Amino acid sequence: MKLSKVNEGRKKKIERYYSNKIKDVELLIDNVWDPHNVAAIARTADGLGIERINLYYTYNKFPNFKDLGKKSSSSANKWIKFDKIGNLEEFASERKKRGWHFIGSCWKEGAQDLRECSFPDKCIIVLGSESKGLSLEIEKTCENFIFIPMVGMTESYNVSVAAALIMYKIFENKGQNLALRIKDTIRKV
Questions:
Q1: Range of 161's domain?
Q2: Which of 14, 33, 98, 156 has the fewest CB atoms found within 10 Å of its own CB?
Q3: Is 144 part of a structural domain of the chain?
Q4: Is residue 13 part of a domain?
Q5: Average pLDDT of the segment spanning 144-166
Q6: Which pLDDT band holds residue 127 (cuts at 50, 70, 90)?
Q7: How crowded is residue 22: how many other Cβ atoms within 10 Å of its Cβ?
Q8: Gyration radius of the chain's alpha carbons
Q9: What predicted TM-score, i.e. pTM, was given to this entire model?
């Protein structure tokens, strides 16, 4: 977006927006079939300072971002960077060489409770599809796994809710300075 064509108030808001990003966290979404879930994830990512969502689709239809859950996303799709992953092995290898850690969200032996999780620098949170969870090839890219505790009768959270809970925990871990900057900015305006 060219800031030269934007009024001064909007320009400052956009500059604040980009300065309040958690640059070392991304999401990797594995075959989430409901575009409203992808849109809701994007809206939460935008609100909590995560700017990139990588999308891996092998058996579900790739979302159409022109029509993607406009009500669910509340225009967050304009601000989130979406990348379509064609070759998962290449993507994971390249990111791991640059120090990124892949953390899968699923219940399995050895998974860490989200409440006790401290996220490493440069992490990619991996979320599976609504019906199948993480695909085997995605699971193989993950070095660690986290789970979100549940006490009710249902067996899992909706993928957009799980993503929101995880992103909020990341915001608690990594976004505290951002929250302080946001408060300072609000006071000045």
A1: 21-188
A2: 98
A3: yes
A4: no
A5: 94
A6: very high
A7: 20
A8: 17
A9: 0.84
Residues in the chain: 189
Give me the CATH number covering residue 135: 3.40.1280.10
Q: Is residue 3 part of a domain?
A: no
The total of structural domains in the chain comes to: 1
| Among the ranges given (18-27, 129-138, 179-188), the one the predictor scored with the smallest mean pLDDT | 179-188
Q: What is the mean pLDDT of residues 13-32?
A: 85
Q: Let me know: does 105 contact 126? Beta carbons within 8 Å.
A: yes
* Confidence grade of residue 177 (pLDDT, cut at 50, 70, 90): low
Pairing of strands 123-127, 112-113: unpaired
Strands 25-30 vs 52-56: parallel, antiparallel or unpaired: parallel
Output phi, psi for 161, to 5 deg.
-70, -45
Torsion of Cα atoms, 39 then 40 then 44 then 47, to 10°? 60
Contact 124, 95 (CB under 8 A): yes
Q: How far apart are CA 188 and CA 183, in angstroms?
A: 9
124 in Cβ contact with 22 (< 8 Å) = no
Complete edge-to-edge strand list for the sheet that includes strand 25-30: 81-85, 52-56, 25-30, 123-127, 101-105, 144-147, 112-113
Residue 1 CB coordination number (10 Å) = 11
Q: Residue 125 in contact with residue 26, Cβ under 8 Å?
A: yes
Comparing CA positions, the residue from 27, 32, 28, 29 lying closest to residue 132 is: 32
